[in-house]
Structures are given as C-alpha cells and as structure tokens.
Amino acid sequence: MKRWIYALPVLALVIVAGFGGWQMMRPSKGEFERLSRAAPEHVFPLMDGSGEISFAPPPGGQTVAVNLFASWCAPCEAEHKYLVALGEKHPGQVYGILYKDKVEDGAGFLERLGNPYTQVALDPEGRGGLDFGLTGVPETFVISGDGEIILHIGGPLDDALAQKVSGALEAPRS
C-alpha cells in the first residue's frame, strides 16, 4: 500500500503552521484603533525646559494629536510634512514627544524641517512611549479632551492617515 498517503495530513499541518508562524512574525503596521483606552498618566519634561506635560487629560481639555518621533528615524522625516500641515490646520492641538533621542538632535531636526508642535516633550529612556503602547517610532495618538485614546496610527502618516487624524481632531466628543 502507499504509505506516503499517511504523510499528507502531517504535511498539510506543517504548511498551515508555517504560514501562521510567518504571519505572527510579520505583523502589519499601519493604522489601528483602540477606542476608549485611557491615555497614560506619565508626566514628561518639556524640551524647552519650561516645565512638564501630561496627556491624561490633555492640555486645555481639548482633543490633541501626540506624535512620538526621533531625529534618527527616517520614517519620522518622511511623515513630517503631514505633521506640519496638521499643525497649521489645528493650531494648539498637535504635540510631539522626542523619543529616545538627544535634545540637541531633536532641536536640529525640528529646525531643519519645521516645528509643527505646540510643545515637545522628552522621553529619553522610552518609558513614556511604553506607557502609550508604542511599538516603534513614528506613531501618532489622538487623545480626547477627557483623556481617552480615540485613534492610534502605528507607523508614518501619509495623506489618508493625516486626514483621519484631522477628522478625529475636529470631531466633537460626547
């Protein structure tokens, strides 16, 4: 009898398990939402040395976008033009967190590309980013006036994602 026929189910299982493992090792980056997750209560020092900031709740009690970036991050540079446009369209609502970077390098980055942020916080050790649930820079979080994360964009902004952030900044919250 043909014994190789008994190996077919095992081979099918190996193929399915291999595909599943491959998918788990390569999670898709992009946008994903986490509705009604509280913003972390982490307190960040400000880059200009003028004090501290927290986003739970955000400054002024209004909806804000918080972008985690670094001067050493190429995708951060690629998305920067979208942040500049968001900062112009929504003055006072776009904040930055300089993630695991030197103040002088971050300042040079913003001087070269423009500073779209109302204020820039520092996260030199990455603890605040971990509290946000950061998987890697750049990432953008939209936080409602009551301190809830209403939108999370994992990865660099493009035109469509920037429009989504803009819409979330404009949407009234109940």
Description:
The structure is a single chain. 37% of the residues lie in helices and 21% in strands. With 174 residues, it is an alpha+beta fold. The chain has a single domain (30-170), classed as 3-Layer(aba) Sandwich (Glutaredoxin), CATH 3.40.30.10. Strands 1, 2, 5, 6, 7, 8 and 9 form a seven-stranded mixed beta sheet that branches. A two-stranded antiparallel ribbon has the order 3-4. Strand 5, helix 2 and strand 6 form a beta-alpha-beta unit. Helix 2 runs parallel beside helix 5. Residues 29-35 have low confidence and may be disordered. It is found in: Cell envelope. One of its GO terms (biological process) is cytochrome complex assembly.
Report the C-alpha radius of gyration, rounded. Answer: 20 Å
Overall mean pLDDT stands at 89
Q: What's the number of domains?
A: 1
Q: Main beta sheet: strand number and arrangement? A: 7 strands, mixed
Give the low-confidence spans.
29-35
Distance between the termini: 71 Å
Question: Quick one: overall form?
Answer: elongated
CATH class, named Alpha Beta
At CATH level 2, the architecture is 3-Layer(aba) Sandwich
Helix content: 25-40%
CATH topology title: Glutaredoxin
What is the strand and helix layout of this fold?
Layout: H1 7-25, E1 30-32, E2 37-38, E3 44-45, E4 52-53, E5 64-69, H2 74-89, E6 94-99, H3 103-113, E7 120-123, H4 127-132, E8 139-143, E9 148-154, H5 159-170
Parallel strand pairs: 5-6, 6-7
Antiparallel strand pairs: 1-9, 2-9, 3-4, 5-8, 8-9
Helix pairs in contact: 2-5
